[in-house]
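Deliverable D2.4 — example input (structure tokens):
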């Protein structure tokens, strides 16, 4: 994206700051419009799928972040610049299952949280008393 061109140079430093601020806001608006349009309800709740009388609706968490900046350089110099960027992210959380007119939310479980973390806690918990005894013995 480019910064909108201006027909005449601003009369003062204050005018230059206002012009840069306006260009920055315009750039942010354009970025938000482009990225925000992609983070819609269908991104959070996907298209329903029905098989054998059961309807499944995927559920995700969607986040959008944007940033932009515009600048002007030195006295009398015509240097101007601007940049912007953004990111949209979707993370699956689970699904809604509709069966026999009843809706049930089913979370997608994370194997790190469900298996590995408890194993690490178990190992640390069983090792801790031995470590404490060894440290006391050395002191």
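Example output (designed residues):
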């Amino acid at each position: 994206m480019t910064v909108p061109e201006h027909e005449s140079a601003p009369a003062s430093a204050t005018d230059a700051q206002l012009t840069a601020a306006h260009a920055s806001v315009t750039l942010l608006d354009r970025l938000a419009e482009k990225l925000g349009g992609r983070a819609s309800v269908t991104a959070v709740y996907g298209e329903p799928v029905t098989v054998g009388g059961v309807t499944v609706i995927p559920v995700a968490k969607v986040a959008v972040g944007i940033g932009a900046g515009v600048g002007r350089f030195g006295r009398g110099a015509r240097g101007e610049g601007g940049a912007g960027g953004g990111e949209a992210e979707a993370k699956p959380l689970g699904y809604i299952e509709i069966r026999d007119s009843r809706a049930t939310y089913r979370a997608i479980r994370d194997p790190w949280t469900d298996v590995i973390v408890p194993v690490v806690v178990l190992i640390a918990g069983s090792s801790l008393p031995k470590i404490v005894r060894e440290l006391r013995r050395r002191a």
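The longest helix spans residues 111-138.
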